[in-house]
Amino acid sequence: MNIFRLTGDLSHLAAIIILLLKIWKTRSCAGISGKSQLLFALVFTTRYLDLFTSFISLYNTSMKLIYVACSYATVYLIYMKFKATYDGNHDTFRVEFLVVPVGGLSFLVNHDFSPLEILWTFSIYLESVAILPQLFMISKTGEAETITTHYLFFLGLYRALYLINWIWRYYFEGFFDLIAVVAGVVQTILYCDFFYLYVTKVLKGKKLSLPA
Amino acid sequence: GQGVEGKDEL
Fold first, then answer.
1. Transmembrane stretches, by residue range (chain A) (predicted)?
2. CA A69, CA A67: separation in Å to the nearest integer?
């Protein structure tokens, strides 16, 4: 465990909590892509099946359980409790265009052709693109609430910090996981455009709105 | 680690 890995995890946790609190406090999930949140719930479910087969550490187990629980709570708030506020008309990204190719790829390119490893690989590939419905929604409506942009910032920061963590681990531990690294690079690149807008607009107190 | 069940990263 190095500082980049730890701050990456905490940044991920911050993103998840920010989103949950935003929905809970405003009693609304307006501007939030339910599809992205469903994909994240699927990501955590397929990745953390090793909870049943192996114990790494108390930290590892607790964080996995928290991520899974929070992602299901978020999906519940969007599709059940505050369904009336869900902006389904703008959440029109076709998720099958992500899930099907990612599913196929995880069968073809993995470390080991075993059920748990294929599901882990699936979750890594899926996570890298799971934010696309949310970014698509923002590009469609042309704007995002500031709190939503904070959520996206921490979510993007998490994978960027993981990239530094992997460089660290490569040099100091000889650890290298090509699947995670390539997917992590793709995932981080998807946030670059958003990072630019976040720094140039949101951090200067302006609302994130895109030119029509 | 790589290709083993039970991952230490999240």
1. 65-82, 119-139, 151-172, 178-199
2. 6
Nearest by CB to residue B6, choosing from A9, A56, A177, is A56
Whole-angstrom distance, CA of residue B10 vs CA of residue B5: 13
A111 with B2: Cβ contact below 8 A: yes
Size of interface A-B (CB pairs under 8 A): 38
Q: Do residues A20 and A75 lie in contact, with contact meaning Cβ atoms separated by under 8 Å?
A: no
Decide: helix, strand or coil at residue A165: helix
* pLDDT single digits (tens) B1-10: 444 556 899 9
DSSP state of A156: H
In chain A, residues with a C-beta closer than 8 Å to the C-beta of B1 are 175, 177
C-alpha separations of A12 from A46, A67, A94, A126, A134 in Å: 18, 9, 25, 16, 16
State whether residue A175 sits within 8 Å of chain B by CB.
yes
Residue A1, token pair as written in the block:
């465990």
pLDDT along chain A (212 residues), means of 10: 97 98 98 98 97 94 98 98 97 98 98 95 98 96 95 97 97 94 97 94 91 74
Residues in chain B with CB shorter than 8 Å from the CB of A47 are 7
